[in-house]
Amino acid sequence: MTGGSIAVRRLSQQVRLFSSSRPSMVSTFGTRLIGAPNTLEHRVFIEHNGSVVSSFHDVPLFADQSNGILNMIVEVPRWTNAKMEISKEESFNPIKQDIKKGRLRFVRNCFPHHGYIWNYGAFPQTWEDPAALHPETKAKGDNDPLDVCEIGEQVGYVGQVKQVKVLGIMALLDEGETDWKVIVVDIHDPLASKLNDIEDVERHLPGLIRATNEWFRIYKIPDGKGENAFAFSGEAKNKKYATEIIHECNEAWRRLITGDSPAKTPTYEISIRNVTNSNSPGFVTRSDPTYANLPADSRQPPAPIDPSISKWFYISSVQV
Predict the structure, then answer these.
(1) Quick one: which of 25, 10, 16 has its CA closest to 275?
(2) Among 31, 158, 241, 299, which is 20 to 30 Å from 84 by CA?
């Protein structure tokens, strides 16, 4: 296939990606909280019209496909440290705090950053296929939904479904895997009308892309690991490139949810239980015991956090 025909094919894919609408579930999402934040038992389920849906498989990628507006799920609100993430393994994929060596995981504060510096989360109905080697990063996918950094001024909450528009993308190489970071802005942000591509971010939010690069390079250093690296020499690619990656990861998810790609291998097992994709081997009715027996809301006040989580770490190896 020639370079020109590849470009035409990608453009046609983008047109389909942003032009064929499906009914959205934008305004009727909520959360079902189980237990107290900062505990091993805590879970945050996404609800639609009061009923649990899978955050990975049921929340639609698009809120308004004709206008290029996507849904993102907030996992970690800005300024917070608890490493919350969609559980790929648990039924209906609640958000829970990551665990390492039996302990809850918190991201450390690398001076001058405090916690996460954006609302961090994921695009539903996307998957970075660990069997797929990206031709430009030369690394396989990290087996997660596509990561998203929302740069608007409002601080979100865990489980919030935000409507966002895409601005660009960065390619983190995390322990040998491609770990894309899509840069987006909430469509309701005061600057949203002025932010339409990656160059607008530097124009209106100078220093943010540079700080984002630094944050991802150094955030694991306090835990005894080395600096992460980026593909493309750390460059943030534009909206067009980001759109292509989103399309690729949405197609990878479609292969996963329909059974064309395995949900269980010797190295991982993903729950594809869902209530909206009837062509999926993971589709269940709401009368199925795995769904009917989901716990009721039992939200509790947050448990206390070890004061050491607030400590600053000064990283001498940072290249500014």
Answers:
(1) 25
(2) 241
Secondary structure class of 302 (helix, strand, coil): coil
Give ∠ CA 117-118-120 in degrees, rounded to 5: 120
- Reduced to 3 states (helix: H, G, I; strand: E, B; else coil), residue 283 is strand
Of 317 and 152, the structure prediction assigns the larger pLDDT to 152
Nearest to 90 by CA among 99, 77, 103, 81: 99
SS3 content of the chain, % helix, strand, coil (to 5): 25, 25, 50
**What sections of 56-116 are H helices per DSSP?**
none
Using an 8 Å Cβ cutoff, are 173 and 181 in contact?
Answer: no
| Per-residue pLDDT reduced to its tens digit, 224-237 | 999 999 999 999 99
- Cβ density class 114-137: b for 16+ within 10 Å, e for less: ebbbbbbbbbbbbbbbbebebeeb
